[in-house]
Structure formats: structure tokens, C-alpha cells
Amino acid sequence: MLPHRTLVTLASLGLALIATLLVVGFETQSGTPSTVLAQFPADAVDQAEITGPAGKTALRRTPDRWMFLKPVEDWADAGGMEKLVQGLSRLQVRETIADGEIKDATVGLNSSRAILVQLGFGPEKRPVERLLFGRPGPFEETVYARIEGHRDRRGVFLVETPVHPILLDPGEHLRERRLFPFPATSIRSYSFRQGNLDVELTRDAKEPRWFLTRPIQCRANDDIAYSILEELAVMRASRFIEDRGLSAGTQNTQGAAAFVIRSMQGDAVNLTLEAKDPQETGPAMLAQIGGRTTVLQISDDLVARLPRALEQFRFPTLVEFDKDTVAQIVIESRTDPKVELKSDGRRWDLFSYSQSWPAREERIKRLLNALLTEPVLEFRSNSSADLQRFGLDRPDLRLTVVTSSVEAKAYDAYRQKLRLAQAEGRDPSTVPSPKVEVERLTLAFRLGPDGLLNANLAGTPFIYGIDPALLSDSIPTHPIKWRDPQILTFSLFETRGIDIAENGMPEMKLTYNYLQNTWSGTRGGTQIDPQIDARRAERLAVTLGTLRARDYLTSRAAAYEALRKPSCTVKIRTAGRGDDSLVERRLVFAPAVESAAIEFYYGQFVDEADVFVIDASVYGEIVHPVIRPNSGEGN
């Protein structure tokens, strides 16, 4: 049996625990009963009436928004109303003063400064909550309050409330100061009218891209479309003007700007802006919003900064595509053979003259970047009837870009089906491949008499004027210009021999033993093994094995003439596919200009018509002596 002192101690602990539980109470959505002034579901409140020093304010929640009914009919700020109602449902009690222990006058509950808040709950048929607030308390953000007509909670309470400033002046804190009650990112379309300009823009539902849908249908300038909306979205009224039209106090020299803004959810706002007479504090506008009788004054001059021409809303560059999905490029000119470039996802190849070569990939990248960034200098026509007038019915050049892509969702679904098939032991090849979306963009170009390059995208009526440098800098029309400039590709290990014959000098033949990593050779039939500088011979092999041209020539008459008397002939022997097989390639070189300061050399394989150009420094590496100095050989 427990001692008497122990029993007394346990009993005391039990009473203390019970007292603690009574003070803490139980958790609810809006706080705890013993520490929260009034218990009610905040989201069920649909009416609020606030009577205080600022007069009587009445608000009601409609299916669309909170509305002021008194002292004026106007929109209320949804965020401010939520803060108010939530704050009233969570008024934390710091002190409780029993009924009759303090006079109402002492805590300001019967003065003209007292504020009565009545909250209604509409269809829930819940009794109206009536909260009376007096003067501020001794602590920060506290005020004396009482629940009117509540039988169970009498007396005066000192409560913590961050919403007291709202109650002092509801009109100042709860009026909707925004021009439209939804974020700019949720806007689907808007129309804009000012003077003779009348445009409508619609955003792509899947991607953040804007399109003009009136007066023409085309891609829009995303930066312009977004910047207008973003400016409107952050604007706030600095002043409310009751019962006045826009014509009062405005200057119409800039012209009114009328908007109709539609959200993704289908909500629409009609908005009209007019420039106001300049204020001492800076520029100002007046805003009239459909459904609101109040005019809003905005400290901004957006009306004066809005675009004045349709062209400002148009997409600023020539064409748009994802360069990572480009699978084919075709260039057709009136002067040169067709160029066809194809990618398998890993590398590009050039197809021309029924042959194929590795393509010059850095030039392809430059072309794609140029097309995506080429600015439109002039929007010349919106009518396909003008194609002939601008010479685009018979263009100088046609360029086709073919993109091939799979929608991300379809690809993810395909990968998931593949994993499932593998897990179930089924053949992955039985899983149907996702649909490949192929798009062809064909541009036609014709140089105009005014010096601009006219351009048209097939399937559209629009004619653009662009810088003619696009063709000369980024779109060579001859196939050879798209060939990979890598002339030779082999390693030292693959090298078997190199023969070099310089003009007027005996031919030197070098042989490489890859097993022993040694060089041997003859010059004019004389053995020169001891005189060979192995490091120089190896450098010669590396130079030839990585030989890269500056470019290929399209006009080759002068080069052919020079190469009839080459300054150097090189024969290269490399390992073939078989054990003992050899591959021989012979090249000839000649100076591009007969002068003391030669900058470039022509080069050509003896069995090909194409001529390439290399730098004089590269040619110097090829003919650099491989005989040690002072070895008795003249080089």
C-alpha cells in the first residue's frame, strides 16, 4: 500500500493535469475554444458589416467575388477579405476580465471609437457573430473586445489581432486596387484597342507562346504581349474617384486604351485607360473597369508607352523552330546543285551528286542560329497576292527545314510500356513506337531592288524584308561549302608510309614500322635511315592525319591552273581493312598566289575534282624537313 504522502502527491499532479487540459482545450480549425475569442468556420462567412469611426461598411460574397454594398458598391480585395475573416476567427485571448469587473467606458467599448463587426453565414443558418472592439490594449497588436449576445462567453477580453487596422478603415484596406483579380500567368487572351490599332492576342494553352488572332493570324512578340500584361497586373490604384467618367480630368492626346482580358477559367474584365493631366507627384492615368462604378487613379503613364503599330506586336524574327529536333535541311538555288543535309541524331551528312560525305556541322549550327535570330527589318505585305510583285513566285533560293519530334507525354508513355514489357519478359519490339511529329518549314528568298532580301514562309501570306547578309554569311548554295573540311583522318598507328616530292627536289619516301615504332626511308633512291628525325616524321604523320581545310572552292579555274605544276606532291599509305592491305591517297599542293608572302595553298586529291584551301602554316608543317640538321643531306 502506498504511503499517505505519495497519495497526496499523485492527487496534486492529477488535479494539475486536469487544470492544464481545461486551459488548453481542444484544437479546431480556427484555434482552441479557451484561447480564441469566437469560434466559427471562416470559409462559411458570406456577409460582413463593420460599424465604427469610418461609418458603416457592408460587404457580401457573391459567386464571383466579395463586393462592397456600403458606403459604395465596388469590388473588394479577395486577399484582404480572407485575411480579415481568418483573423477574426483566430483572435487569441491574452486576458479575461469577468463580467462587471470593469466598465465599458474604461476599455472604449461604449465610445464612438468602438467598432462593431457582424458576420453572417448565409445558407448555414448559423447565428450572426457580433464582435465589439474597443481601445487598444497595453501590448502590441492587442485590443479590448467583447462578444455581443453570447450567453456562455461574457465579460471583456484582451485579444491579439493583426486585423485591427483593417477594422478602423475598411474602405482603405479592403477596396480592390488591382485592375483585374487574377494573375497575369492565368490570362488566356486579351484584346487591345487604341486609336486605329485593334489587336487580339491569344496564348497557346500548352506552351507560353502568344499569337495574334486579329487583325491577322500569326505568331506574336512574346516579350511585348507579356510585358503589357505584367505591367497591368502589378498596377495598384493610388486613389478612388467615385461617380466620375473618364472624360473628367483626362488628356486625350494619347488616346484611350481599351482592353478585354480573359482568364483561363473564362472570366473576363473590360478595362479602359486614359492619360490624366500630369500630377505634382508624376504621371497618372484613370482606369475604368467593367462592373465597377468607381474610377481608379493609377500613378503610371502606360497609355503613352503602349505600342502604336501592329508590327510591334508581331514575332520579331523570321521563323521559329526547335533546333534540337531538326532532322533535314534542303537548299535549292537557281545557280547551284541541290544541297541536302540529313541528321541521324548523332552526326550530319551531306548528300549531293548521288554521293554522301560528312557534313560541316559548325556551319549547320550557324545556319540554324541565324534563322532563329534573323530580325525582320520590314513587314512588307500581309497578302499572298503580293508574292509575284516581290519576286517570290520565282525565288532565288528555297530553304526547307524539317523537324522531327515526339511529344513528351507520348515518349514517357512509350518508355513506361517498354519497362513493363521487359519486366514481364515480353519482346520490347512488340511495343508500338510513339508517333513522330514531322514539320516542314520552307522559306523562299528573293533580293529586292531596294537592297532588302524579300522572304516568305510557305503556307503563309506574309512577306518580310530582311538583311541580305543572311544568304552570303549563313546560306552557301553550293554543296561543297557544306562538306566537312576534315580532309584526312588517320592515326600514327595506322600509318604505313609517306612519300613527299617537293618541286625541284628528290622524292623522299618514308616507311613506318608500327610494331617497332621506327622510321626508315630513301631520298632519291639513297637510304637515309640514320638521318631521319623520328619526332619530325611523327609530327608529319599527325599533321596529315588531322589535315583540315579552311574551305572548299566553288570557282576552281585558277586553282586547276596552279595545280598543274604542284609545289608539293604527297602520297600517304595507311592500313586497310585486311591484315596486309594498304590504302593509298595522293594529294597535290600549289600556292594560291605566286608571291613572296603566300598566305594560302590550294590542295586536291588527284582522283577528285574538288579543290580545298589550307593555311600557309599548315603547308609549312607538311614540307618541314624530317632530316636532322648537319646530317649531310640537303633537305
Structural descriptors:
12 helices; 9-stranded antiparallel beta sheet; elongated; disordered N terminus; alpha+beta; 635 residues; 33% strand
Describe this structure in words.
The chain is an alpha+beta fold. A nine-stranded antiparallel sheet has the order 4-3-2-1-6-7-8-9-5. The longest helix has 21 residues. The protein has twelve helices and 36 strands. The radius of gyration is 42 Å and the shape is elongated.
Low-confidence stretches: 1-33, 248-253
Mean pLDDT: 87
Profile the largest sheet. Answer: 9 strands, antiparallel
The gross shape turns out to be elongated
Task: Tell me briefly what this model is.
The chain is an alpha+beta fold and 635 residues long. It has 4 domains: 18-174, no CATH class; 184-313, no CATH class; 323-482, no CATH class; 495-622, no CATH class.
